[in-house]
Hints:
Belongs to the CpsC/CapA family. It is a multi-pass membrane protein. Its main location: membrane. Strand 2 and strand 3 form a beta hairpin. The chain folds into two domains: about 5-35 and about 170-205; about 40-160, Alpha-Beta Plaits (2-Layer Sandwich), CATH 3.30.70. The protein is elongated, with a radius of gyration of 28 Å. It is built from seven helices and four strands; from the N terminus they run H-E-H-H-H-H-E-E-H-E-H. By secondary structure, the chain is an alpha+beta fold.
Amino acid sequence: MSETASTPMARRGLRTLVVLVVVGALVGLAAGLVARPVYTAVTKTFVSSTGSRATLLADQGPYVQQVARSFAEVVTRPVVLEPVIAELGLGASPSALAKRVDARVAQDSVVLEIAVADPSPTRAAAIANALAQQLVRVADRLMPTGADRDGPERVTIVDAASPPSAPSSPNPALDVALGALIGAAVWLLVAAVRTLAAGARRGSSDGPAAPSML
Length: 214
């Protein structure tokens, strides 16, 4: 293909790319505008141990970190969720509430964070704090003291959740960027398909097909 013929094709391809990127960005923006806002509240707890096992260890950090990770798994179990549902009158099943809860312990840390997502910022904070309080009670039952036990491993609330002032999602900037990327990906996919189709039609005797610019 001559340079004269390829220049208009390249321009058409560029225009198509711009159109698809703009359309994708607008679709992403629209999706973000109509999406229901979700707020995320976080309660921070501190896990500690004064038991004989932790005291005898040269470095008790890994032991307490393992305890903290175990407690993080307990947060999304019915033993913690069901009392909170009843206390706050949430009207949700434990499995449904668990999907909105993220309990995690950062690497090399004994701080357990309980994050709750909810359309209401006030309710998100209330659930996060109630989960932390229930975890404190459950931890006391799971790790009782006694002559034959190594406890106590304790959970202490160090930073109670407050109603967030801004939603965690949707994120308009992210939605626009994602929409634009999808538009560009569509352009690349269509261009590749058209190039392959043109090459198949020409056959191997005609040499390689010129790249399609849409």
